[in-house]
Amino acid sequence: MSKKNGLDKNTAARILEVARDEFAKYGFDGARVDRIASRAKINKAMIYYHYRSKEKLYHAVIQSHLNRIREFFETSLDTSPDPEAFLPQIVSFWDAMFQDRKGFIPIFLRELAGGGQVMQKAFEQMMKESGFNKVLKQKIDAGIAAGQLRPVNSTQAIISFIGMNLFYFLTLPIMNTVWEIPDEKEFKEQRKKEVVDLFLYGLKAR
């Protein structure tokens, strides 16, 4: 039986899922470990034994989210330098990530509003371990060197691409209302292609 922090894999995943919902709904200050324990059907003392504190449990929730990003870039991203091959993959990944973990969005937004110190440290650690930012930069730079893409600042381009992916998900209720989007699922599917097309149109050599 696979274990993490001394917990079996299913129990650890259940605790983090319930904790994510709790932190998303109530914020860090309003979240209660006893509610998490009750919903996860585990003794509260067991949570404190394995995670030590509410703060460390909160960190574990954020880390579990970032681990999925790291795993994608380390094991699933297409090795091809062709942007038309790997960019759609990234867009589909972000869509699946936010679809599966909608509860993480309020946590992300609260982190940004509060200065994002916990998220920043976790991101820095993930980038140090996975180098995903360097992977993307190398791919864009390779496309520029091959003449597929215009000679742009690859860092600026990557930040813009990430923003194009994240903005809609982070403002989804507002965007759906303002733009009168009747079918969110259909719009998301269309957006996967549109984001890549718009990004590449701005980068492609002319």
Describe this structure in words.
The protein is mostly helical. It has 2 domains: 1-52, Arc Repressor Mutant, subunit A; 64-203, Tetracycline Repressor, domain 2, CATH 1.10.357. The chain is built from 11 helices and 2 strands, in the order ββααααααααααα. It has helices at residues 9-30, 33-40, 44-51, 54-76, 83-100, 104-113, 117-130, 132-145, 154-170, 172-178, 184-203, and strands at residues 3-4, 7-8. Strands 1-2 form a two-stranded antiparallel sheet. Strand 1 and strand 2 (7-8) form a beta hairpin. The longest helix has 23 residues, at 54-76. The protein starts with a strand and ends with a helix. The relative contact order is 0.09.
Topology overview:
Elements: E1 3-4, E2 7-8, H1 9-30, H2 33-40, H3 44-51, H4 54-76, H5 83-100, H6 104-113, H7 117-130, H8 132-145, H9 154-170, H10 172-178, H11 184-203
Antiparallel strand pairs: 1-2
Helix pairs in contact: 1-2, 1-4, 1-6, 4-7, 5-11, 8-9
Keywords for this structure?
2 strands, Arc Repressor Mutant, subunit A, Tetracycline Repressor, domain 2, two-stranded antiparallel ribbon, 206 residues, mainly alpha, globular, 78% helix
CATH architecture of the largest domain: Orthogonal Bundle
| pLDDT averaged residue by residue | 89
Structural classification: mainly alpha
The spatial strand order of the largest sheet comes to 1-2
Spatial extent as radius of gyration: 19 Å
* Pattern of helices and strands: EEHHHHHHHHHHH
CATH fold-level topology of the largest domain: Tetracycline Repressor, domain 2
Please report the first level of CATH classification, the CATH class of the largest domain: Mainly Alpha
> Into which percentage range does the β-strand content fall?
under 5%
Distance between the termini: 56 Å
Number of helices: 11
Classify the oligomer: single chain
Shape: globular
Number of domains: 2
The low-confidence parts are none
